Amino acid sequence: MSARGTSKDEATPTEVEIAWLAGLLEGEGSFAMIRSRVGGKIYRYPQIIVNMTDRDVIARVAGLFGGSVYDVPRYIEGRKLAYRAQITGSGAAQWMKDLYPWLGERRRSRIDEVLTEYRAQEPTQVRRQRACSEAAAKRLRSDSTGQFVTGDSPGI
């Protein structure tokens, strides 16, 4: 089982809760890598998502994920209101690991694909440090004033 439950608000899920969630996700959930574009760069993160019309069930999932219940827009008039719970990033990756033994072959295969791609990426902390170092390297410190200036500034 995972190391979840380190904060006061988030309890460690029991084996029964994990098994229940696995059964629900086997039929109603999806496991994916999603894209996020930030500052012209594309980042990819694992995501678990489940939609259904039973709000109480989605509220229970959201509670396990430590998230919220979202309304799903109705695109066809007269359809029942649907709800969504989701988790993204390292939390989703940990849930995938915890759910794995309880899932069927097709879902396990998908989780293998998602986690393989996720592990192959540069860790967020390393990526952020590299981006900061690259930005700092583009700046030069003037010896006379101590002010930061770009490398394109005349007279330096």
TrEMBL record:
Q: Which domain of life is it from?
A: Bacteria
Where do the segments described as Disordered lie? 137-156
Q: What is the lineage of its organism?
A: Bacteria, Bacillati, Actinomycetota, Actinomycetes, Mycobacteriales
InterPro entries (alphabetical): Homing_endonucl
What is the designated name of this protein?
A: Homing endonuclease LAGLIDADG domain-containing protein
- List, alphabetically, the SUPFAM superfamilies matched: Homing endonucleases
